[in-house]
Amino acid sequence: MSAGETDGGSGRDRRRFRSLLVDTTPLRESPAFAKLWTGTSVAQIGAQVTIVAVGLHIYDITRSTFAVSLVALWAIGPMILAGFVGGALADAFDRRLVALVTSIAAWASICTMALIAFLGVETTWPYYALAAVNAASATIMGATRGAILPRILPPQLLPAAAALSGITMGLAITVGPAVAGVLVASVGFAWTYLLDVVLFTGAFLGILSLPRMRPDGESAHPGLGSVVESLRFLRRAPNVRATFVWDLIAMILGTPRVVFPAAGALVLGGGPVTVGALTASFAMGALLSGLFSGPLGGVRRQGRAVTLAIAVFGVCTAFFGVVLLVTGVVGNPSDGPVVPAIVLAGIALAGTGAADNVSAVFRTTILQTAAPDDVRGRMQGLFYVVVAGGPRVGDLLAGALATAIALWAPALLGGVLIAGIMLVLLRTARGFQAYDAHRPTP
After folding, report:
1. Which of 176, 209, 242 is the last residue of a domain?
2. 171 Rama class: left (phi>0) / alpha (psi -120 to 50) / beta
3. Angstrom distance (rounded) from CA 146 to CA 87
4. What is the phi/psi pair of residue 66, to 5°?
5. Are residues 32 and 161 in the same domain?
6. Closest to 35 (Cα-Cα) out of 140, 145, 163
7. Domain contains 157
8. What string of DSSP letters covers 100-166?
9. Predicted TM-score of the model (pTM)
10. Cα dihedral angle (25, 26, 27, 29), rounded to 10 degrees?
11. Are 266 and 355 in the same domain?
């Protein structure tokens, strides 16, 4: 073989490898998106730092796991309300202004949290309340940002933009908790919150660079009527509706994270270290699938892709359950961590993270391209309601199954059920399976 042939083969291999990597065209083609993505990426790391720090802080004050769980309980109601209200605001007013005002509210809540921590306040309710304000503000900001993206990017680049967003979230979930743990242990809670105060200023970078952006067509009037109108739209929009229903199936039946602490203590061994590894595995899977998301931009049958991705999510979830079942029978965590089982469990959860991210890329793209601009904010708000509510219902179901049957039951039974439902939907939900990215219809 000649040197020229060798160089040609190497060049083809390099091009083939580059085609697998995430498509960064949105960052080059749209300066507005590049600034918004960069600022959001920085801010998300800070957000994850605060989420972990608040939990650790509440536990340090109360020494109660139940008290820590109340952080989520305080936040869920405001988050759901913010999803509906925020979407209505994004369809009624200048979206740049809505994003800017809610960013200021979120930043102010973090600043206040840092301030009271420096003052040594050890009453828990202010931290609960501020975490709820922050979560609600972030929900409105996220819904508005989702409605903005189709206005600053052409439709064919939205899958790549969703993949880039998945990378930043995976990175934030991986890096943020680790940074929070180190800072809390070394410099304390107040300085840890202050890091988020600094990092969150990145969110303003992209928002301030946007032009005024009122919704196309007739603006909705914010209020209950606007929310009802969006639900009426959803009734006659089967493809948009399917993105929510499919995700709820996955999240309600396939969320075994509540068994992680018991699995680390009673089945896999290793305690908190194992719990951290299992949590990080999901995030790493999402991150890797985002890095190698290049081919996703060429997929036309995006409804079918969502269904297959969630089926794979179910299979990987069930595999995690099998690992717990088999390890519970043959393992002995009292002798130390069962390393082979932990590795297999990590691989299974990385698979769920990767499949979930692929599903999210296509669900986000369908939602952004199929929904008309005048209801897009409300659809993005409803998306956040589903994202916030589904996993929490899944936590309740998983806890009940684990208590009634065994630790392996939520993952194994739920994963099998998810995969089975998706296989049925592949044959019965023909309209969604035929959804064409080149001719998006709600």
Report:
1. 209
2. alpha
3. 10
4. -60, -40
5. yes
6. 145
7. yes
8. HHHHHHHHHHHHHHHHHHHTT---HHHHHHHHHHHHHHHHHHHHHHHHHHHHHS-GGGHHHHHHHHH
9. 0.80
10. 80
11. yes
Q: Which residues 6+ apart lie within 8 Å of 14 measured at CB?
A: none
d(CA 305, CA 385): 23
| Cα–Cα distance, 274 to 222 (Å, whole number) | 47
Residue 211 DSSP label: P
> What does DSSP assign to residue 18?
H
Helix 224-235 to helix 373-404 angle (10° resolution) is 80
Are 173 and 165 in contact, with CB atoms under 8 Å apart? Answer: no
The answer to whether residues 287 and 233 belong to one domain is yes
- Calculate helix-pair angle for 339-370, 158-186, nearest 10 degrees: 130
Burial category of 143 from C-beta neighbours within 10 Å (exposed 0-12, middle 13-18, buried 19 and up): buried
CA atoms lying within 13 Å on the CB side of residue 364: 29
CATH of residue 400's domain is: 1.20.1250.20
Neighbours of 69 (CB within 10 A): 14
Query: What percent helix, strand, coil does the chain show, rounded to 5?
Result: 85, 0, 15
120 with 244, same domain: the answer is no
Number of domains in the chain: 2
405 domain residue, yes or no: yes
The residue range of the domain holding 50 is 24-209
Instruction: Let me know if residue 252 belongs to a domain.
Output: yes
Cβ 68 vs Cβ 207: under 8 Å: no
Does residue 7 sit within a domain? no
Give me the tens of pLDDT residue by residue for the chain, a chain 442 residues long: 555 555 555 666 666 666 677 788 999 999 999 999 999 889 989 988 888 888 888 888 887 767 776 777 788 788 888 888 888 888 888 889 999 999 999 999 999 999 999 999 999 999 999 999 998 898 888 888 888 888 889 888 888 888 888 888 888 877 887 788 788 888 889 999 999 999 998 888 888 888 888 876 655 566 666 777 777 888 888 999 999 999 999 999 998 877 877 888 788 888 777 777 887 888 889 888 888 887 887 888 999 999 999 999 999 999 999 999 998 888 676 677 888 999 999 999 999 999 999 999 899 899 888 888 778 888 888 887 787 778 878 877 888 888 889 889 999 999 999 999 999 999 999 999 999 988 888 7
Structural Rg of the chain based on CA atoms = 22
